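Contributing new records

If you add data, match the layout below exactly. Sequence lines come first and carry their own label; structure lines follow with theirs. Keep one chain per record. Anything else will be rejected by the validation script.
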Amino acid sequence: MHLRTLFVACALHSGIAIAAPPEARPRIRDWGIAIGVLPTGPNNAITDVAGVRVGHATISRDGTINTGVTAILPHGGNLFREKVPAAIVVGNGFGKLAGALQVNELGELESPIVLTCTLCVGKAWDATAAYLLALPGNEDVRSVNPVIAETNDGLLNDIRQRPVREEDVLKAIREAKGGPVEEGSVGAGRGTVAFGFKGGIGTSSRHLPAALSSFTVGVLVQSNFGGVLTIAGAPVGQELGKFYLQNELRALKPDGSIIIVVATDAPLDHRLLERLARRALLGLGRTGSSMGNGSGDFVISFSTRKAAPLPNESMSPLFEAAIEATEEAIYNSLFKATPVRRGTENVEALPLDKTREILKRHRVLH
């Protein structure tokens, strides 16, 4: 029996008048909408790249704090001792991405990737540094390069309090795991807003068939940006009446930020990972982002496999995988997000009933 039905039946049987728990919000693929042409991995998540782990710490208190931490680990070992190839690409640089210079200089990642809010970057850096220095085998280490990325959740979060604590960062890192990834208003996505609706954490993956080498590309996003929401080509934002340039600049701004993390098990070096990361920005564009002046749009890419890099001629299927997975991850961040309030400020989730009607009208959904 469905959980909701069982809950209602038990309440009625006992004579208790109690509301049933809300239905879980779907991912876009739960509606039968396949983004692109490539198949997903088993979880349709960044964790479909073997070894990759994701953890969250969600912070919500006092009616004014809505923020958190999301950590992405390429593997479960000592990342400082077992570095992975990596690259960082800037779409629009209005942001504070700590550690980016060294990653692109050396082509390596030696820390978890930690996502949080803008004014919490320093606290997250310090906590991540403490985590790395405390790992067995790092007793003589005198320099570490934590990679901390952010989006500004100041609308729904009293960001000036800088509410992230060391224990929040350590919780996200230490509890990171493989398998299904929690999405929506969780972790670093707790207070974010995208296209005027509640944004958040979203993820997706693509698995190349055997004829194309069987590699996997996974993407995780922290969505907090604006534009004209387009879902699988349908003008959803316009028809819902929320979009940039609506009524001559009266409504939403295109500004905000998005962090896109791209993982793969394909053997890629820094140069090829940079090429892969640039394609993720095409997936961002498909959703309706124009990467406005005040938007921080960053892609962090890494490979879990150290081996001779693929030839350039093998990259095109991976490019397609990164584009599709990024697009779908953004949709999932919107579909799975739930409303969040701060005082009198309330940001509603994407209205699924109206969105379904629009997608049917445009023959995206049958």
